[in-house]
Design brief:
Length: 113
């Protein structure tokens, strides 16, 4: 059996709660027609569900107008890659700042010169 290890259950729970509340449903009102308990809906919304099959999650999402999306997991940067990306962003910001300062300095000289 394959388990979904990288699903963000906390974020999923928040989306489920928001969608349920927008529809004006209580947890019990959502759970009953789906054959689930109110406690299961509460666990989903709090991101602490111990085990939930894909069919159950799909039923909840379908009822709430949400969709399940499967996509490749985002690749996490190594520390060195993150540092290089940060350095690149800082270099761009410094160049932009230098350019603005040069324009301001030139404008100041024209005004006072």
């Amino acid at each position: 059996m394959n388990y979904i290890q990288y699903m963000d259950w906390a974020k999923t729970g928040l989306l489920v709660r928001e969608a349920r509340q927008q529809l004006g449903l209580t947890q019990a009102e959502l759970a009953k027609p789906l054959g689930m308990s109110r406690a299961t809906i509460s666990q989903i919304e709090n991101g602490v569900v111990v085990e939930l099959g894909m069919r159950k999650l799909a039923m909840v999402c379908d009822r709430l107008g949400l969709e399940i999306v499967v996509r490749p997991r985002a690749q996490r940067l190594t520390l060195h890659e993150a540092y290089a990306k940060n350095k690149e962003a800082r270099d761009v910001a410094f160049k932009e700042t230098d350019s603005v300062l040069a324009r301001l300095n030139a404008d100041s000289k024209e005004t006072h010169g």
